[in-house]
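Hi! If you just cloned this repository, the fastest way to understand the data is to look at a raw example. We've pasted two of them here, unedited. The first protein comes first, obviously.
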Amino acid sequence: MNWQILDSSYPFTCPWFKVRKDVVKLPNGVVVPDFYVTEAPDWVNVIAITKEGKYIIEEQYRHGIQKVCLELCAGMVDEGETPMETAKRELLEETGFTGGNWSAFGMSVPNASGSTTKCYHFIATDVERIQSPKPEKTEEIKIQLLTKQQLNQIMLDGRIAEAVMLEPLWRYFANQK
């Protein structure tokens, strides 16, 4: 079932991702002369829960859909960093929360047919705020601390739009029974 790559080139690159153009041969012999794949750093997201049992949710503008979104703390894995290191760094930078107990909670692939990116999920419990957030200059983030019921409601209402955020949340709550 695997496709054979006959040729590859990079018609577009920027600091955040590359677009790879592959010429591929399918097992049935069909040759596709222009199959495009995005290559980007892996991502992380964090289901973070305070010592008081509140879930940390971020609110920020997302230009792709031109809307303000509710989401988990998340970010790209920097070169030389493990996903766990990234998750801890992003939580501290974006929210000012740290500490607690951390565990890996799986991985998902946002677009298996056209991207190499993986998203690693983490759970951080008993975190506490030790500083003011220090977001990047392109980030304007508002923090919300929600109860489990409030978080469930915004998930049901569709107010968390990104599938890569919803997948670990739904799995987390399904395992809480």
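Ok, and the second one:
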Amino acid sequence: MREDKSAMQVKSMLLAMTLLIGCAAEPLLKKTQMSQFQPKQVWTYKTRPGEEASRVVILKIDDHDQAGKIVHIHVRGVAIQNQQASGGVTTVISHMPYAENALANSVIAVESEAESLPDFQKGYATWKRAFDKGEGGIFTIPVAEGVDIMQNALNSSSP
């Protein structure tokens, strides 16, 4: 059987469109490795006992060749013993760099969106300089344990 010219043209156009869509879709899929985390999100997380009102605020996400996605967070509502703080307690950690999967294992749900981000640029810049030199790292433990480490660091007796 012989197909008429217009039917062949329609089939050719459909095949061309399918190929074009297939070619266009493949690179887009490779570029859409989005994070579940976005700046300004406020998350509940598995807190230390007594800090159930504490929250994690997403500050920034870096995509690193070796480390993968690094999610920079601000933790508010903690009660870190700190002899140098007014009242002996620090209630915020302005910047903590986290491996995306470690943070994902610590958070529970997005609670809200912050109207603006807390000031974290100084802490981020300090971390970034050290990280780029291979002298700084990222947290790969639960956030509650990271808060413990920060408390221990603040209270260690150093000369």
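That's it. A detail worth noticing about the second one: The beta strands are 41-45, 55-64, 68-81, 89-99, 107-113.
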